[in-house]
From TrEMBL, chains A, B:
Protein name: Histidine--tRNA ligase, mitochondrial
GO cellular component, one term: mitochondrion
Binding residues for L-histidine: 111-113, 138, 154, 158, 308, 312-313
Domain Aminoacyl-transfer RNA synthetases class-II family profile stretches: 42-435
Compartments (UniProt record): Cytoplasm
Enzyme Commission code: 6.1.1.21
Entry annotated with the keyword Ligase: yes
Organism: Saccharomycodes ludwigii
Record's signal peptide: none
GO molecular function: ATP binding; histidine-tRNA ligase activity; RNA binding
């Protein structure tokens, strides 16, 4: 229970003396420091309903991960710096280092994938399905509205081990679909491509092997920039011929259902005579039958322009985007405004520019068959090939989508309190039954029932009712001055519709039984607001 | 599901070609780096059963915190360095700093209390009951066996707000008792003291105000060192007179039930004429009636030698110790060995020395009325006194105690898998029903049922049974080659006691209904092993 306004509290005769002393601390705590009362740039506190929604997203996803046989692990928030080195290409500059205070050099983890590969290699694990929900760190330019933070959560599910091709890959795609639909997000598509097909296309177009990754990075920008801009990057900045660029352009324009694009590519002689592209295409053929078995083919768009930034992918790559990811109506205007600011010599406001690209991809993943092996070999272990495939849910972005269902969020409670214990009596001499309220509370706590009472020896009835209503809890247990002396309590439903219901008088000893019964009635009547919110139902 | 041995997999004709390509990656991933395959000093990975036990501890504690009206918050893992400055006395040297890579200076959080106070001050919160389960960081000498890590979890519950004295304090004590007993730890006692009484005693003994905190630190060592050693520190190192030391010695020897020690102190004229001590004692009088209401007075030992290290406490202080915290039998020997190593010019092995002091306190807490105020004042906000009291569970230490119940841990599964889908057939031409197994799995997943199958197109029955048994799941759904063609599935219990049970043949369309029914039977029969483990039952 958190409150930002605190009504003045009336003093109680019995405890007034001590309370005065209590408050007299005020004078003795002068501090001369001047500190900024804020969290570091790109980080935030989570509290109240936001926290409840986020926790519900985590619990929804982890129950899906468990449903697929996943086990969870927990790795340290920082790793030896050498473990992270050379894994993220250009983005390595975004890694947070810890200060060298003597001892090992360490850095905050950038993602959960590299620590997972380190874990698998270090423990000689031959197969594992693991999920991990934890924070990662990137010294990026924050864009809060876009959900881009320096500290943010990832929810990852990965399958490591030697298996028949596309079996774990198709399950990751199924998990992606199950996760988003269970969270009430139905208007998404999965852009899917295959690194081997893409690399094959680059070979066909005449890109040299050593240039493949940087051309791939250029193509990766097609979700934000038109082909003409990317083409210029390929020819001018990356020194490829016009012919190479145009050949790439022909292919990366292709997209459609898995079967449509498969049909086009399988009839393409350049593709079938390129070893890499052919391998990739054979895997797509197998994948088609598996996604049909899962009934998820309608979500998938085979899109040859998808390249994905990270170096470590070796096979299937995919990312889910929603229609909410499309530029908002006023994006052009915002972009224009941001440009103007730059012209005037100011720094471009990232908050403005970011609005243009929307929330971006909300889930992403792919196959990375060499990462575990890199660790095994680099540490001098007997090398075993442990291929991996995974899927990573971007919680901050999903959170923004879920939270847009505002009208439902209004009903979410941040406490779980079920019972508020009150004492009504009167007369100056009456002690307010505080130890008695505590005794009843203890009985209910011991029975696992969420219970509160006002932290006041002698509390007036109005304040107790206000506090109970504020907490949103459905039941009150009332110690009436006279009734209690006769060994009785009153149990009453709370809420406006029960304003004229006096409740039921019961023996004190029955309190756990009666309260439990009434609560199960309450919860039969009610609907879980959080589940309703997550599923996007009205 | 994680396995460290992987049986060689027989190739399947349909997919052999692609698989070969899959494995050919092996050659292309040579890396020349030499890296240490380990986690940083004082950190570790959590996995398998340890992870399951730890998660169960978290869920037990958070359900208790919720039961008391708690809401959870999440703060960043690093804070502005100035927020942490000047809060931890001598221990400030243990704070991990992030490297100055441009921008703000930040440090990893040392505990959850200071970030909580920053949160309360920053958001002008007047009252909140919050819990927070998260990692904290201390560059201490690690002692794994003692449960002392550089990265470890704290589970904190704190109540902020102006309330009648001792009401929230006694609830924190009740939460301490509920938490430990719910986790099966019954042989503990709560050492309790009051900073005002302690400070009063120091005044009575003639300690100057500016020396109080350092004398308090000396007294804090009484749990590890005999009085003679502490007395020497007070007189020799901390420059107090013999008389002062002896006066302190008289008081700090006192311990007993709350009422016993209260009686002694309330008859002591020095105490009743010292303003601070008198205030503290009045609060103890109130506390006595509240802990009686909660029925937890038998756990409490009023112990005037308890001082607690941290500067920020202002009232009640307490810590729970277990009999398991006492030195093990071979402690003296280990200590001797450690000393010898030092004599030989080697570094003392902390692992050895630490065994001497056992696991130490497993829960600790107290009242800190000025911390929020310090932040408000230092940031120039209108200052409001927000008194706080809290309790912090040391999970790593509790984990060690719970895990000692080895015989129970043996039964814990790390996956939640309930159903393993298999296909039996035969003949070279049979395709292994993999897409069909996927279809059935998808039905069960959509019904929320944890389901796995072997990631193999054509799997032999033995391997499928082995995998199912290894997962420990109770049910198999079997696609028999002939039965499936007739629209039928076989549902069968797994486990040695069902070896001769052929199961039941059902229509495919009934699979969700039948599996759900059978699983509810299974779980009625069974007992939750984790709950049994936590509660220490056999």
């Amino acid at each position: 229970m958190s409150e930002q306004k605190n009504p003045a509290t009336a003093a109680n005769a019995q405890t007034a003396n001590v309370k005065k002393q209590h408050q007299s601390h005020k004078k003795s705590s002068k501090s001369k420091l001047q500190v900024s009362l804020k969290t570091p740039k790109g980080t935030k506190d989570w509290a109240d309903k936001d926290m409840v929604i986020r926790e519900a997203i985590f619990s929804t996803l982890s129950s899906i991960f468990k449903r697929h046989g996943g086990v969870t692990i927990d790795t340290p928030v920082f790793e030896l710096r050498e473990i992270l080195a050379g894994k993220y290409g250009e983005d390595s500059k975004l890694i947070y280092n810890l200060e060298d205070q003597g001892g090992e050099l360490t850095s905050l983890r950038y993602d959960l994938t590299v620590p997972f590969a380190r874990f698998v290699a270090m423990n000689n694990i031959e197969k594992i399905k693991r999920y991990h929900i934890a924070k990662v760190y990137r010294r990026d330019q924050p864009a809060m509205t876009k959900g881009r933070m320096r500290e943010f959560y990832q929810c990852d599910f990965d399958i490591a081990g030697n298996y028949d091709p596309m079996v774990p890959d198709s399950e990751c795609l199924s998990i992606l679909v199950e996760g988003l639909t269970k969270l009430g997000i139905h208007d998404f598509k999965i852009k899917l491509n295959h690194r081997k097909i893409l690399d094959g296309i680059f070979q066909i177009a005449g890109v040299k092997d050593e240039d493949v990754r940087k051309i791939s990075s250029a193509v990766d920008k097609l979700d934000k920039s038109p082909w003409e801009v990317v083409r210029k990057e390929i020819t001018v900045e990356k020194n490829q011929t016009e012919e190479t660029a145009d050949k790439i352009g022909e292919y990366v324009k292709l997209n459609g259902t898995l079967e449509e694009v498969y049909d086009i590519l399988s009839k393409d002689e350049s593709i079938s005579s390129n070893e890499k592209a052919k391998q990739g295409l054979e895997e797509i053929a197998i994948l088609i039958s598996y996604v049909k078995a899962f009934g998820i083919e309608r979500f998938i768009s085979f899109d040859l322009s998808l390249a994905r930034g990270l170096d470590y992918y070796t096979g299937l790559i995919y990312e889910a985007v929603t229609s909410a990811s499309a530029p908002p109506k006023d994006a052009a205007e915002l972009k224009e405004k941001a440009k103007k600011n730059v012209k005037k010599g100011e720094t471009a406001d990232e908050e403005d520019v970011s609005a243009y690209v929307g929330v971006g991809s909300i889930v992403a993943g792919g196959r990375y068959d060499n990462l575990v092996n890199m660790f095994s070999e680099a540490s001098g272990k007997k090398s075993a090939q442990i291929p991996c495939v995974g899927v990573s849910f971007g919680v901050e972005r999903i959170f923004s989508l879920v939270k847009q269902r505002q009208e439902l969020a209004a009903n979410i409670r941040s406490t779980s309190t079920q019972v508020f214990i009150m004492a009504f009596g009167g007369g100056k001499d009456w002690n307010g039954y505080l130890p008695e309220r505590m005794q009843i509370a203890k009985k209910l706590w011991n029975a696992g029932i969420e219970t509160e009472y006002l932290y006041k020896a002698k509390a007036n009835p109005r304040k107790q009712f206000d506090a109970a209503e504020k907490s949103g809890c459905p039941l009150a247990v009332i110690l009436g001055k006279e009734e209690y002396l006769q060994g009785k309590l009153r149990v009453k439903r709370l809420g406006p519709e029960f304003a004229h219901d006096d409740g039921e008088v019961i023996p004190i000893d029955d309190v756990v039984k009666v309260v439990s019964e009434k609560l199960s009635q309450v919860h039969e009547d009610g609907v879980d607001e959080i589940q309703k919110l997550l599923q996007g139902l009205r």
